[in-house]
Design goal:
With about 170 residues, this protein is α+β, with helices and mostly antiparallel strands. Helices cover about 45% and strands about 15% of the residues. It has a 3-stranded antiparallel sheet with strand order 1-2-5. The chain has a two-stranded antiparallel sheet with strand order 3-4. Helix 1 packs antiparallel against helix 3. The longest helix is centred in the first third of the chain and has 51 residues. Pfam families: Tt1218-like. This is Type IV pilus modification protein PilV.
Length: about 170
């Protein structure tokens, strides 16, 4: 009578199957973590861009009306290329010219730093009175859908950041 010694082929295959399922689960978890990190990075970049817009308004208070005019902002994705030129570096320009350049610069930065990024300022309806919103959107998000009926779009899949300005 012979007794089996060692591990059989079936046991090895079962062990490999269990190991493969574990590795696939780990790979899926890693992919999910990477996607979450990318989303966080994009939101962080959009928040910094919105904050930059607010700081430019504060730095150039004389042209506040230019910044707050929604018609000054295209709301489109800027073409990838060189930053908008400014004649304000070579010659004196007034605060409205500086505001126009700031708007071009912010729209260019949104297009370069975010995937299909867009930025604009628009009026917001709030319970405490009229305010302005800096809206930054990316990817397929319609920038007009970031603020709906005076409410910020807080849907799980929304790809926008909205900062309210009240002064």
């Amino acid at each position: 009578m012979r007794y089996q010694t060692g591990v059989g082929m079936v046991e090895i295959l079962v062990a490999l199957l269990v190991l493969a399922i574990g590795v696939l689960g780990y790979a899926g978890l890693q992919l999910s973590a990477l996607k979450g990190a990318e989303t966080a990075q994009t939101r962080s970049q959009a928040t910094a861009l919105a904050r930059d817009a607010l700081e430019r308004v504060l730095a150039n208070g004389a042209a506040r009306a230019t910044y707050m005019d929604p018609d000054q902002w295209s709301g489109d994705t800027a073409a990838f290329g060189d930053a908008p030129p400014s004649d304000c570096f070579d010659a004196a320009c007034d605060s409205d010219d500086m505001a126009s350049w700031d708007i071009e610069q912010l729209e260019w930065q949104a297009g370069v730093l975010l995937p299909a990024g867009r930025i604009r300022m628009q009026p917001c309806a709030a319970a405490s009175g009229p305010t302005q919103c800096v809206v930054v959107a990316w990817r397929e998000q319609d920038i007009g859908e970031c603020v709906r009926n005076g409410e910020v779009n807080a849907d799980e899949g929304s790809q926008c950041v909205v900062m309210e300005v009240a002064r």
